[in-house]
Structures are given as C-alpha cells and as structure tokens.
Amino acid sequence: MIGQVVAAKMRGKKTMVSASELAQMGACERFVLFEAKYGKRVSRCQQEAIKRGRAEHAKFFRDGVRSQAGVETSLSQPWCFCASLAWGPEAPETHLLRRFRDKILRRSAVGQCLIQLYYRTAPGLCRRLEGRRNLIRALRLGLKPALWIAKAALAIEDEKEKG
C-alpha cells in the first residue's frame, strides 16, 4: 500500500486510503510493510468479488443518471483521458467535454455506446501519446471539432432548460 501511494504521488495522481486499509494498517504493521515491499496480493475470489462490486456500482450509477434529468457526474467519473492529456484535468476544455458527456451523451443509447467505446480505446491511446509534444498538439487540433459540437449542443440544451 505504501509503495502504491508513493508511486502514485510520483506520477502526480491523488490517492485515497479506504477505511478497511486504515484498519488493516493499525492491525498489522508487518503486513503493510510486506505489501509495500512486494506489492498487494489479491486472491482470485477477491478479484471476482471486486469485479462484481464494480459492475453493480456501475449499474447503480447508470440507473441513477438515467432517472434524473439534470444530473452532472463529473465528480463521480472524472475520466476524460484525451482532454486531460491535451489541456489538463482541470482545464475549461476538459470540463466542457465532461459536461457534454454527462448532459448529452449519457442520455441516449448511441451516446452510451460512444462513451463505452471511448473508455475502451482512449486510455491506451493516451499512454502511447504521453510525453510526445507534437502528437499532443495534434490531439488538441483533433479535439477542436468535438469542442465546437459540445459547446453548441450544450447551448441548445441550456436554452431548452431555461424555456
């Protein structure tokens, strides 16, 4: 756990420690040191339980988003891989694309398919582009039309909500 936290901090990512992990740290210091040195070990049974839990959470989350018209979910799912790589995770462009995803795409079956396709392909693409300035500039240019579409669609959506 400690090794993972240090590695995540070196990559500039935020880390969280669950209540279970805190309790485990208090109960067995040797185990924490072992995990820091050799990595966390998860049994097949635990992996399956984690997978089932994540699938149920995703289903619950999708049902909640579908049932509420004005739900914005950027805090719950801030994954906007390409925009985060191109402009940064807190940039206005990234927030605009998140709003487009949450307010427009999530509401339709086609949009949800596009989101799933994006989440399957974007992380690998971003790993390949990371650190390559010229390719990141090209990514920014490639995302410009998506920004224009998102801005226009959100303006129309905002007008509908006002009127």
Distance between the termini: 52 Å
Assembly state: single chain
Mean pLDDT over the residues = 78
Low-confidence stretches: none
Annotation, overall tally of beta strands: 0
Strand proportion, as a percent range, falls in: under 5%
Q: Structural class of the secondary elements?
A: mainly alpha
Largest sheet composition = none
Number of domains: 2
Please tally the helical runs, counting DSSP H or I stretches of 4 or more residues. 8
Order of helices and strands: HHHHHHHH
Query: Share of helix among residues?
Result: over 70%
Rg on CA atoms, Å: 19 Å
Q: What would the principal axes of the Cα set say about the shape?
A: extended
Structure write-up:
- The chain has about 160 residues and is an all-alpha fold.
- It has two domains: about 1-40, no CATH class; about 70-160, no CATH class.
- It is built from eight helices and no strands.
- It has helices at about 1-10, 20-25, 30-40, 45-65, 80-85, 90-105, 110-130, 135-160.
- Helix 5 (about 80-85) crosses helix 8 (about 135-160) and helix 6 packs across helix 8 (about 135-160).
- The longest helix has 30 residues, at about 135-160.
- The protein starts with a helix and ends with a helix.
- About 10% of the residues are buried.
- The model has no long low-confidence stretch (mean pLDDT about 80).
Write the layout of secondary structure elements.
Blueprint: H1 2-10, H2 19-27, H3 29-38, H4 44-67, H5 81-87, H6 92-103, H7 109-129, H8 133-162
Helix pairs in contact: 5-8, 6-8
